[in-house]
Design goal:
The protein is 4% helix and 17% strand. The chain is mainly beta. It has a domain at 16-76: Gp5 N-terminal domain (OB fold (Dihydrolipoamide Acetyltransferase, E2P), Beta Barrel). The chain has a 5-stranded mixed β-barrel with strand order 1-2-3-5-4. A hairpin with a 6-residue loop joins strand 4 (58-63) and strand 5.
Length: 209
């Protein structure tokens, strides 16, 4: 215990000087800060200073440390844009996190991942642009008032398909070909078959009437 007390007693005390000034120049990670009535001080942004200092900003500088002067905080921005600059991987932990922007929120990265138990998205208008999409969905329920789609090619593999059309279903196609392995059944109150040139029916048995 005595040795610890001696070490604490003989530990040198470093005097730190705080000053503020305006950023007048930037060189890589160094910021040239001009305090009032003094020469410019070249300081690095401290890791705890979240806002990136820009030319024209008023910043708080700490001097006297062995590592050199540091910009501790941006006191006043010169422009209307602010940048948060953090090193390495960053994790934000909170009970609830809300991002609120008056105009736009953008996420840009080579890879973006979302995970959660429940998700919800609400938009007045939505545009989704992607070159390739893969989705694995257990169950989907959609309610759409109007749907317009333009597809160059559509391929579907369905085990069972059921559709209920209340009013009209109309198809315009260059050619239609249906291949059924077993039975093909059509039931209607009225059936009309119209061909401009030829109608062919071929089968082992053909029943009419």
């Amino acid at each position: 215990m005595n040795n610890v007390a001696v070490l604490k007693k003989n530990r040198p005390v470093r005097t730190v000087c705080l000053s503020y000034g305006r950023v007048v120049e930037q060189d890589g990670e160094l910021h040239g800060v001009m305090p009032d009535g003094r020469a410019a001080v070249w300081a690095r942004k401290a890791d705890g200073c979240l806002l990136a200092p820009e030319v024209g900003d008023v910043v708080l500088v700490a001097e006297g440390g062995k590592e050199g002067p540091f910009v501790l905080s941006v006191l006043m921005k010169d422009g209307t844009e602010s940048r948060l600059v953090l090193k390495g991987e960053v994790e934000v932990q909170a009970e609830s996190l809300i991002l609120n922007a008056g105009r736009r929120v953008g996420l840009e990265a080579p890879e973006i991942a979302f995970s959660g138990v429940r998700g919800e998205a609400r938009f007045l208008t939505f545009a989704f642009l992607v070159s390739a999409c893969k989705a694995e969905i257990h169950k989907v329920t959609t309610v759409i008032q109007s749907l317009d789609s333009v597809t160059d090619r559509l391929t579907q593999r369905i085990r069972n398909s059921f559709r209920w059309v209340e009013n009209l279903e109309q198809v315009h196609a260059g050619r239609i070909r249906s291949i059924v392995k077993q039975r093909f059944f059509i039931k209607a109150r009225h059936v009309s078959v119209h061909a401009e040139e030829e109608v062919s029916m071929d089968g082992r048995k053909v029943h009419l009437g």
